[in-house]
Design goal:
The chain is an alpha/beta fold and 368 residues long. Helix content is 40%, strand content 14%.
Amino acid sequence: MNWLAERTQYLDSSGIRKVFELGAKLTDPIDLSIGQPDFDVPQPVRQAAIEAIQSGKNGYSLTQGVPLLRQKLQQRINEQYGHDDREVFVTCGTSGGLVLALLVLVNPGDEVIVFDPYFVMYDSLAAVVGGKVVYVDTYPSFRVDPDRVQKAITPRTKAIILNSPANPTGVVAGEDEVRGLAELAARRGVVLISDEVYSSFCYGRQFVSPARFNPDTLVLDGFSKTYGMPGWRLGFAHGPRAIIQQMIKFQQYSFVCAPQPFQWAGAAALDVDTSVYVADYRRKRDMLLEALREHYELVTPEGAFYIFPKAPWGTASEFVARAIEEHQLLIIPGNVFSRRDTHFRISYAADDRTLLRGIEALRKLARR
């Protein structure tokens, strides 16, 4: 008896998750795989969560989020963009926002443009809702080329997903790239979904949101990376009211609401200066670049906390398998994020001891 729906075929266990599970079996792994901050939630934010729990704020919140958090987010967004029609609501993480966005935007047969390499959820979730994924290649520079996107758009194109700073490459799209893509989406009536969860982590090139140039851009963002709280599942989305209201409706029938105590903590987090964490990740990035540049072909990452070098021999999968077997080094093969198997992802969201051990192992692997 076949109990399972066809959509289950579009999802495989994440390759990242498989590496996590393998790492749990190793005695002393060098873990450069995980895409979450290695710093803890700032103390004032933890305290706000504790106070919310102890004061009884443990029930359901409004589906669209606790009013205080929504008001603080809306004020920031209004000051930044000044769009009369731009509304915000609180989601169960940035990933929860992505699920809702695709549910309300994509019909079966609609096309969704994804840049290759891409975050693992983009193509899989688009396929789950019945969309056809159209990949736009960005190798070798990992930069967005609006002309390539123009050629990929058809009458069935419904959405484009942009992630800047990008996972897995760390590349930050420049103003010309972002403006060109935003204006193209506006001209063609295509929804531009901008995943901005790493926007706080930029090292040199300034972050630019396509919402600056296209008021119909749907932005997904969250607290997980900026404030070190990925397990708290707190995100937000903002965009045209017509889209946001439908996303809220679908949240009511799925996630219900984001965890209420952590929404109060999120309101406190918005007042916390995180520049010290950003500066530390820039230092870690520079440490890795200095150590690996002579040994690996790579594009200098300008944001997030990832480097995406090319495997110096074999396929990326073969290279990663050797790294794990011989050095207990946990990194992610590029075919998890791409139709190619040529590169691999390093996360430098780790302490210095782990990074130094990883550098030593990577240098040895490069000399094979």
